Each structure stands twice: as C-alpha cells, then as structure tokens.
Amino acid sequence: MGIILSCCKSADDDLLTPDAETRRKLQAEAAEKRTRQAENRGIKDPARVQRLQKKAEELERREQEAMRSGNTNAPLRWQMN
Description:
The protein is mostly helical. Helices cover about 65% and strands about 0% of the residues. The protein has three helices and no strands. One of its GO terms (biological process) is negative regulation of VCP-NPL4-UFD1 AAA ATPase complex assembly.
C-alpha cells in the first residue's frame, strides 16, 4: 500500500531547493574557498610568503614616504661626475 501512495504524492516534498539568497551565499563561500586553495597551490609555507609580501609592501611604503618628504638621500642612487 505504501508503494501506491508514494507515487501519488508530489516530488516537491522530497526535494527542497534553497531560496535564492541561501544559494548565493553558498556559491560565494565556495568561490572564496576555491580562491584560497588556488592562492596556496604550490606553496610549501604560505605563512612565509605572507611575511615576505608584507615586508616588501612595508619597504615600498617607506620608499614612497621618503620620496614625498623630499629626501634626496635615497639609497642606491647613481651619481655621474
């Protein structure tokens, strides 16, 4: 008897699809996860890479500040006599 009744009810009761907002949120989370995985692909020590990037950004920021302040004694400047 259960077999007959199971084919008479709608399939919508079994398969609930999430609303649009929930679907967007899940897709955004999946995209962020893929991005993080792609960034770390092939890198043995991601923390070291981040430290090196921060160090390079800090060095670049210092050089830009030195140029803005008018400091002409910047390192590695060539002088021709």
